[in-house]
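Pipeline run #58 for the internal structure catalog. This entry was flagged by the ingest filter as a single-chain record with no existing model, so it goes straight to prediction. Upstream metadata was stripped on purpose; only the residue string is passed forward. Reviewer on rotation: M.T. Logging verbosity set to normal.
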Amino acid sequence: MYLEERKLEELSFFRKLSIYGQKMGIEVLVFTPDDIHASKSRIQALYYNTAARKWQRKWTYFPELIYDRCRYHGMENYRKISRFRSQYNRRLKYLSNPLANKWSMHQILSENEEIASHLPATVRYNGSKELIQFLKKYQRIYLKPRSGTGGRGIIRLQMTHGSGFLMQGRDQNRHIIRPQRVYEMQISAKLSTWKLNDRYIVQQGIPLSLKDGRVHDFRMLVQKNGKGEWEITGCAGRVGPRNSVTSNLHGGGTAVPMDTLLLLRFENQAKVEEIKEEAYKLGMNVAEFIEKKFGQQVEIGIDLAIDPKGKVWLLEVNPKPSREVFHKIGETETYRKAITRPLEYASWLMKRKKSKKE
């Protein structure tokens, strides 16, 4: 989707996809629902001219495969992409099928016993009274938009040693809401402006604070390879800025190698290896189960938390993950794989389709 002034959010990533695609014999075109011709059969696509080192446009037909990177922000964009899908889905082939919102995803993942044991307790927001009961039970909770991305609109509430609670978060523009002490009778009024009903879930908070008070988590990328098989491409830590309840890189977070962050916390290599083995097993289980439930997928981003005892928790599943975390920590080969694997999988799909016709 176009942002303001017809800018695209991931143009740098698309440029890299285009360069690698050209080396593999795959033409990469970039388009939005706004680029479709009135005839509905052609698109005015962007393509990267490697010789001129710049983006150019051309009229062309819909490509053989669609790699959906559409992250819609706002109701108008949601309506636009919904119209596009209803009009064109029968004639277009996607690398991935759409997934559900956070609440539906939690319910579906809970059906798998192995995965369910890694899920934090989660309920739909149903008023401040039930919220306070949930908070008193788990001491720390997160309120998250059911369909939000990038750490937008997340609130954390936690009990303090004295009376009252600590409230902090990020607004819809990812701006940090600094910590403020609130009392039980104030919570309802504080949350009234957020329009939480039917839009938010409430999740058990896992202790994620490092010694300096900053929160952290881990981003795992699971992708299909050039043989159509799932593989863990990589996993890296993310540490949030001070006073932030999220660690997303878009919100000012810092990337750290997984081993570095785990050793910092547990100071034991054997324990680190044990945690990694559990995390990787969970990642593969999640990818395979999601594909079983939703149909074909090309990649899944998985946000993980490791509690102080070393237990692995599944915080979130992202069907359109970024991969910059691997570039930030200097894992060049992992970053290259993260970019090329969707192309390798696309190539594999197209070759299979061609061989079936012959």
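catalog note: Residues 127 and 197 are 7 Å apart (CA to CA).
catalog note: The chain is about 35% helix and 25% strand.
status: ready for reviewer M.T.
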